[in-house]
Amino acid sequence: VIPTHRRPDKIAACLDALAASDYPRGRLQVLVVEDGGPTDALAELRARSFDPLELIWLDQPHAGPAVARNLGAQHATRELVAFTDDDCCPRPDWARRLDAQLRSSPGSVVGGHTVNKVVGNLWSSASQALVTYITARGQQADGEPFFASNNFALERDLFVKLGGFDATFPLAGGEDRDMCRRLVESGHDLVWVPEAIVDHYHHLTARRFWDQHYRYGRGAYQYHCAQGRRVDPTDPNPSRGVWNMRARFYLDLVTSPFRFRDAPQALRIAALLLFSQLPNAL
Question: Are 219 and 173 in contact (CB under 8 A)?
């Protein structure tokens, strides 16, 4: 399932990548949801064949990626459902690796690894470093399990039973965290499959980086409100959990680039990770 919003070049590249999948021929169904309804820019693309995919195009009024993913999953006819984004290109073995892990551990949720492919763009590198850090931290005993919505999969029946993504999240940011939390609270394991890789082509500028992390902050606030209301529907301040993050989280976040990169680039990315917390907090 792939939500898209007026980015024909991006979704075309994503579909080309999926068409090169080594998943058994005829078994990969792809549902693209145009969030905002059909556009002239996508009309030509919709007429193309992406053999061997079973490609289904769906439309909805502009309502955000959470609603779009739910719509796609509702129309899916396979027993397993995987999610990615229109600016991602899954590698050929992506679907096969997710499928194999799900079948070996029924009832689990699996997530893969995402690689920033905008080489030389420090804004994009820092943004991906944040998601990679949060995903890796979620595998630790004291971490909060998390998979980003551009690379995870589960049984379709489980997704439907859980109610899908919370449709009250209007923007990208927080809805995947909320989904993971509900899955864990329902007793399901989140299993990381780092070999299931999608390449991420998310070009960021300083302004877009600021906007992205401001949006992440809005999503985090909404996430904590949702969690608070589930714990106590009568709580007059359900967002109190937003201040419970420990200082260790931020220290580890800022130092994480030094474990994987050369010092000059690591220093720049660490500075941007620190900077990202300003729009997030605002």
Answer: yes
